[in-house]
């Protein structure tokens, strides 16, 4: 399996990292690395996330505040977006 990121998902990562970096640039970098490590696990275990609230998607809790919304298509795991857990979808 390969991991594919949508433009929306990549923009979410940039936005989140930018927000964190305002207060703590080091934490922003470590957060992105943690996020990448968690998403990489989907290559071997694409079903590890829970069933998504949107049909055909899955949700992987990346951190207590962030969820990766993704779908499996053939041999690809597509990261659709990142979502803050406190916000409604």
Describe the protein's architecture and organization.
By secondary structure, the protein is α+β, with helices and mostly antiparallel strands. It has helices spanning 7-23, 25-40, and strands spanning 2-5, 50-51, 58-63, 66-73, 76-84. It has one domain (2-84): YaeB-like fold. It has a 5-stranded mixed β-sheet. A hairpin with a 2-residue loop joins β3 and β4 (66-73). The N and C termini lie far apart (27 Å).
Provide the fold topology.
Blueprint lengths: L1 E4 L1 H17 L1 H16 L9 E2 L6 E6 L2 E8 L2 E9 L5
Parallel strand pairs: 1-5
Antiparallel strand pairs: 2-3, 3-4, 4-5
Helix pairs in contact: 1-2
Number of strands: 5
CATH topology: YaeB-like fold
Q: Can you tell me the CATH class?
A: Alpha Beta
The largest sheet, given as strand count, sense and whether it forms a barrel, is: 5 strands, mixed
| Class by SSE composition | alpha+beta
- SSE order in H/E notation? EHHEEEE
Strand order of the largest sheet: 1-5-4-3-2
Count of spatially separate domains: 1
Count of alpha/pi helices: 2
Low-pLDDT ranges: none
What helical percentage do the residues reach?
Answer: 25-40%
Rounded average pLDDT:
93
State the separation between the terminal residues, measured CA to CA. 27 Å
């Amino acid at each position: 399996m390969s991991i594919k990121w949508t433009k929306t998902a990549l923009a979410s990562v940039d936005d989140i990292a930018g927000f964190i970096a305002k207060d703590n640039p080091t934490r922003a970098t470590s957060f992105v690395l943690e996020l990448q490590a968690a998403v990489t696990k989907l290559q071997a275990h694409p079903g590890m996330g829970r069933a998504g609230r949107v049909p055909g998607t899955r949700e992987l809790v990346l951190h207590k505040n962030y969820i990766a919304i993704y779908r499996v298509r053939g041999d690809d795991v597509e990261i659709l977006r990142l979502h803050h857990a406190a916000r409604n979808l």
